Amino acid sequence: MTIRATFLGTLCRPSFVVAIAAVAIFVGPTSAHKAPHTPEQLKQYEDVLMEEVRKGDLLFHGDAATAKQMGVVLSTTGMACAMCHPMASDTHPQSYPKFQVETSKFATLRDMINWCIEKPNQGEKIEIDSEAMKALEAYIAWSNSGSVLVPGKH
Amino acid sequence: MSDELDRIRREMHAVLQQPGVRPDDSLQITRRTFIHRSLLFGAASVGQTFAWWPLLNTIDVAHAAEAPFKFAWISDTHLYEKSLNTRFVDKVVRAVQEVQAMDPPADFLIFGGDLAQLGKIEELELGVDLLKDLTIKKYYIPGEHDWYLDMGKKWGELFGQPNWTFDHKGVRFIGLDTVSRGPDYWTVKKMTPEERMGHMATLDGTVAGAWAGVGRDQLDWMQKILADWDKSKPIVIFSHNPLYEYYPPWNFWVRDWREVNEVLKPYTKVTNIHGHVHQVLYNEIGSMRSIGMLATSWPWPYAPEGVPKLTKPMIRADPGDHFDGVGWETVNVNAEDKVDVEYIMWGRKEVFVQSDPDSSLSQPEKLRPRMADNMWPY
Ligand SMILES: [Fe+2]
Ligand SMILES: [Fe+2]
Question: What is the pTM of this model?
Answer without folding.
Answer: 0.84
